[in-house]
Amino acid sequence: MTGASLITVALGAKRLELLRELVPSARTIAMLINPDTPDSDPESKDVLTAAGTLGRDIHVITARSQSELEPAFAAVQQMQAGALIVGADPFFTSRRAQLVALASRYAIPTIYYWREFVEAGGLMSYGTSIADGYRQAGIYAGQVLKGAKPADLPVVQPTKVELVINLKTAKALSLTVPPTLQARADEVIE
């Protein structure tokens, strides 16, 4: 694919900020990444840098297969992390129902990179729209089929980043979503 970017990795620090606002008592925060994904290293470094500024400790947990997801959540609980950031990764997207179920079972406030996780019952997401990214890819595919050269097409960056919060999940976690955070949300699921 050419021409479309979803900028999921560049938003890690902002996800940490939002999670800190929702769960201010969480001094230790875990970050789940797939070490086999090329963007996992820059994303985790971005979050680690932001954590220092925000006075939070970040522990990076890895999972590269379905069998490693449950042990990863057990490790998050064992380290007594107050919250979790799920790093952007296609493998995690394909396992979103399992990740949301594990976050619920372990009662870990979790922020994700796409709204689809929140629609599946996750707590909160901050990221671009995957549907908009696919739409842009479709537009570019149409242009290529009409004769445009892929090298001549500019890379399109998303223009909208959305915050989605699931109040039902927040309630199940005994979290009160601050009104200021709710007001900034693009969508609040009740």
Notes on the structure:
This protein is an alpha/beta fold and 190 residues long. The protein has a single domain, classed as Rossmann fold, CATH 3.40.50.2300. The chain has nine helices and seven strands. The protein has a seven-stranded mixed beta sheet, sandwiched between helices. Helix 1 crosses helix 2.
Quick take:
Helices cover 44% and strands 16% of the residues. It is of the alpha/beta class and 190 residues long. The chain has a 7-stranded mixed β-sheet with strand order 2-1-3-4-5-6-7, sandwiched between helices.
User: Helices and strands: which structural class?
Assistant: alpha/beta
Q: Residue ranges: pLDDT <50 for 5 or more in a row?
A: none
Rounded average pLDDT: 87
* Total E-strand runs: 7
Could you say what the CATH architecture is?
3-Layer(aba) Sandwich
**Fraction of residues in H or I helices:** 40-55%
Query: What gross morphology would you assign?
Result: globular
Separate helix tally: 9
In quaternary terms, these chains amount to single chain
Distance between the termini: 36 Å
Give me the CATH fold name: Rossmann fold
Rg result: 17 Å
Which helices and strands occur, and which strands form pairs?
Layout: H1 12-22, E1 28-33, H2 40-54, E2 57-62, H3 69-78, E3 83-86, H4 90-94, H5 96-105, E4 110-112, H6 115-119, E5 124-127, H7 130-145, E6 162-166, H8 167-172, H9 179-184, E7 187-189
Parallel strand pairs: 1-2, 1-3, 3-4, 4-5, 6-7
Antiparallel strand pairs: 5-6
Helix pairs in contact: 1-2
